[in-house]
Amino acid sequence: MGTRTVGAGSYVLGALGGGIRGYELGVVAGALLYAGPALGLDDALTGWVVSSALLGSLLGALAAGPASDRYGRRWLLAAGGALYTVGILGAALAPNAGVLIASRVVLGLAVGIATAMIPVYIAEIAPTRTRGASASLFQLMITVGVLLASIVSYALSGSGSWRWMFAIGVFPALVMLAGAALLPESPRWLIRQGREEDARRVLARSRDPRSLDAEIAQITEVNRQSVRRVRLGALLASPALRRLLLVGSVLGILQQFIGINAVTYYAPRVLTSIGYSSSAAILANVGFSTLGLLSTAVMVFFVIDRMGRRRPLMYGALGMALSMAVLGTVFATGGSHGADGYVAIICLAFFQVMFGLSWGGIVWTVLGEMFPLRVRGTAMGVATFVTEAASVLVSQFFPALLTIGAAALFFAFAAMGVLGFLWATFMVPETRNRSLEHIESGLSSPSRLPTGGGRP
Whole-angstrom Cα distance, residue 57 to residue 96? Predict the structure, then answer.
């Protein structure tokens, strides 16, 4: 087996944690249609069932950064797989809302760990020329997990077997757990621990032998210049680091406030609110998930390492803003099953496509690339924490807000899309075709990082 094949295998195994995040995102949309009546869930409890996993993600993301800096990236991925297995089985067996919520907190811990660590891990192990596509495999696996959950939910919708909808999620968790045992450790983390020969063996799997010594020397030099690990207080005290943390955190907040979790978690509920049956709404959700997977695959293989990071974020934000604005208009004019229902389906489908082509994977890629080695774990943990906090707010309050005023809610998502376009245009650095060490060297003056999509 060639070194490129071995390296690609590592990226796929590393991205498997995206599958558990995707299954968690997708399965609750269908399961709640049946678990709600079975467990007596009102709007408030429904919001808590959804957002409890996101609250767990907050804790998982915060713990993952410092723990990975100390113990390594690979160990954290294995811990995430184990926690997910416990949480998904607890949700499947939950006798009441309290146990379901507690189990989903455990699920969230696993998802937070995976979300904070996988983009960092892949960015640190992948070659510069393919780092964007490799890191975006995380989002591709999320869409695979969402599609799997949608198919499972539809297959079981006839019987309303929501417990089995959750229980089947144990299989991607076990695959992730087994895959973590086969992963190499991050070479940049190994060099930071003084294990240069181990790092060399890992890099040799996917690098041209002629460039290996130069890459090792570059990583070692950057590590030598930043040997002291920077903690959160020092991270916030540095203007350059604080600016990067602000750029990344706002990027994560906007990813959620544009409305993706509302669409992923509640698309069936949106459709049932205008007259579709539960089974038809879940079937439509399978279609949305399929479009999300296909568009993410296009982004991974044809967009991110050709167009870069910044331009897809700009165009994707505008596309999602348009779809939310039209959907808001449907509800403002008293949308119902029929012509308005078809327009709603088209808007939700277009939103999924634009998200998959842009903000779905590219945000996590940029976050995994933009922070320097000495703060990468901590900074990524903070950025993930902020992103998940925004996700909690959307998921917790969406059911009640949908009932109170759906039109205004979707118009608000459209406004967030416009803000996302402006943020990507003026604040997000272009990191395509630049080594992590070259990106880090710009931190002394972050404004020197180019904001165009061209080659350096």
Answer: 22
